[in-house]
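User: Let's play a game. I give you a shape written as tokens, and you guess the letters that built it. Ready? Here's round one.
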């Protein structure tokens, strides 16, 4: 089997999810830098890989794929290494539920509304949008309460790390950098313990974001 290629940038939450899956499986891969935020957008030929202009895109042995959930499941199923999805139907459903919550409700709120505004905006010379942060905080509370309720401990699906943990970890890495985010995590003991367990994994160190 050839070496898979991930297209994207290391700061991206979604690129990191795919890289975490590859790292946890022990699969060597190549990262081709594509910046969707470059002036004028990503290169035109990238849109043939990902017509929506988002990162990541992925290629393995001529098989092109985009959408992070599809890529990470493919990585788990196509390569040897520890299984990143539980076998039992109910556990697998929980994993998919957690990923759905993260994509649909958590990503925009935790990362864009809170981390980007509180942490990145001042770093890039822009004042934080306080109204946006204030509006996002109750939504973040809802997300974290829901996730804490689904957590099996030590990981989302129990004893073994899974794609649910790998989907959540990059979002939490950023969210915790905002004081408001750290405070909400601190109110959920179970999520605090989960974060300590997931943050200690070598895959997290290997994919550390330049913004951390
Ligand atoms: N549904 C996509 C979402 C990917 C995504 O939103 N990636 C962000 C970076 S973390 C991006 O490319 N943003 C560029 C933009 O919003 O224009 C997936 O699952 O891969």
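Assistant: Ready! My guess for every position:
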């Amino acid at each position: 089997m050839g070496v898979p290629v991930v297209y994207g940038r290391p700061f991206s939450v979604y690129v990191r999810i795919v890289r975490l899956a590859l790292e946890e499986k022990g699969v060597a891969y190549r990262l081709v830098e594509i910046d969707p935020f470059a002036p004028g957008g990503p290169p035109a030929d990238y849109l043939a890989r990902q017509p929506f202009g988002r990162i990541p895109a992925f290629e393995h042995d001529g098989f092109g794929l985009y959408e992070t959930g599809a890529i990470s499941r493919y990585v788990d199923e196509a390569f040897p290494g520890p299984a990143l999805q539980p076998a039992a139907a109910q556990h697998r459903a929980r994993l998919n539920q957690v990923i759905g919550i993260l994509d649909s409700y958590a990503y925009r709120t935790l990362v864009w509304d809170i981390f980007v505004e509180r942490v990145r905006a001042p770093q890039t010379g822009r004042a934080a949008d306080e109204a946006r942060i204030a509006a996002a905080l109750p939504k973040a509370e809802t997300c974290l309460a829901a996730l804490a309720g689904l957590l099996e401990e030590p990981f989302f699906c129990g004893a073994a790390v899974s794609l649910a943990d790998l989907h959540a970890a990059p979002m939490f890495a950023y969210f915790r950098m905002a004081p408001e985010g750290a405070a909400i995590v601190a109110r959920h003991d179970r999520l605090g313990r989960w974060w300590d367990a997931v943050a200690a994994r070598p895959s997290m160190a290997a994919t550390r974001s330049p913004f951390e």
